[in-house]
Amino acid sequence: MTARSVAAPAPAGQLLEQAMEDVDLADVAAVALCAQVDPELFFPPVGGRSRPAKQLCALCPAREACLRWAMAHPVEGVWGGTTAVERARLARNAGRPYPAASSPLAGPHGICGTDAAKRRHYRAGESCKTCGVNQ
To answer: What is the signed CA dihedral for 117, 26, 49, 110, rounded to 10 degrees?
Structure first.
């Protein structure tokens, strides 16, 4: 039996520094495992389980780039193996503000104007001018 070496995750402060670099999501999606499964897995309902998404992220070669992007943008759901709450905690532990707290587009369902936020508004029976949902 041979031991497999696993790279240790970068410290939160280092991830936040790297988040200033632009990460092209098109490049990430080309190798990301999440692009091969139902996206709803990564947006569990409130109180839902995020473990299945996190387990897939743990195997993904794009996990670190995805996490860097999510740390620099106010997004809901599981990105880079973390939830929005966990990303906010990483930022707080590194002494940095998390962008979600100050973004004018960050609503109760993520970044308003995205397809994911629009679907969540529909499911919740809410109206949102930014998403174009009138219910």
So the answer is: -20
- State how far the Cα of 73 lies from the Cα of 125, in Å rounded to an integer: 26
111 shares its domain with 83? no
Report pLDDT digits (tens) over 9-45: 445 445 444 443 556 667 777 788 988 999 999 998 8
Does a structural domain hold residue 36? yes
pTM across the whole model: 0.57
User: Which tens digits make up the pLDDT trace of 76-128?
Assistant: 899 999 998 888 888 888 777 666 444 444 555 455 666 677 777 777 788 87
The residue assigned the tokens 């709450």 is 85
How many other CB atoms are there within 10 angstroms of residue 128's CB atom? 20
79 in helix, strand or coil?
strand
Domain of residue 117, residue span: 104-135
109 vs 130: CA distance, rounded Å: 12
Q: Is 38 inside a domain boundary?
A: yes
User: Domains in the chain: how many in total?
Assistant: 2
